[in-house]
Amino acid sequence: MILYFEMEGITMENKLLVVYFTWSGTSKIIAERIKNELNADIFQIEAVKKYPNKYITCVAQAGMEKLKKERPQLKRELENISEYKKIVLVFPNWWGTLPMPVFSFLEKYDFKEKIILPICMHGGGGLTNTVKDLKKVCTDANILDGTAIKKQDVDSEETKKILEKLVNELK
Questions:
Q1: Which among 42, 146, 156, 157 could disulfide-bond with 35, CB atoms 3.0 to 4.6 Å apart, if both were Cys?
Q2: Model-level pTM?
Q3: Is 130 exposed, middle or buried (0-12, 13-18, 19+ CB in 10 A)?
Q4: pLDDT grade for 6, boundaries at 50, 70 and 90
Q5: pLDDT attached to residue 14
Q6: How far is it, in rounded angstroms, from Cα 114 to Cα 112?
Q7: What is the DSSP secondary structure assignment for residue 50, as one 8-state letter?
Q8: Helix 26-38 and helix 157-170: axis angle, to 10°?
Q9: 119: how many CB neighbours lie within 10 A of its CB?
Q10: Closest residue by Cα to residue 43 from 16, 61, 65
């Protein structure tokens, strides 16, 4: 027997969540576009301790967190991860991997049988180890191929086409 709930045409089988972490704002732009296209819920990962506004200082702090394998405390929690089957995870590439607050978020929840689409914002490094590290943390999830978007290309036609393709695949 298969049971599911339906609200306004959205079933538990296709309820989608967009989760993002941003420092410069580009991840938020992409996350909100996907949210709007798919009528999805959205959640922002935010560390309690704010990152510095200066790029070089932020990079140094992020590098130290990575070296120490820190897991920064988050401002808020997501209460209902079990409601979602599909999750779009938008994040910047920090030192070749996920930002430490993203690890804090991922290690807090059970992603068993969830479908996760990673979208990595970057300044030139591409995906590097982001998807590999995501798979290490979310071992029971179905991690889709990662998509890399250069932060300077957020508003480009190419990025619009990439997002359109991803949105159609998630429907």
A1: 42
A2: 0.91
A3: buried
A4: very low
A5: 67
A6: 5
A7: P
A8: 40
A9: 23
A10: 16
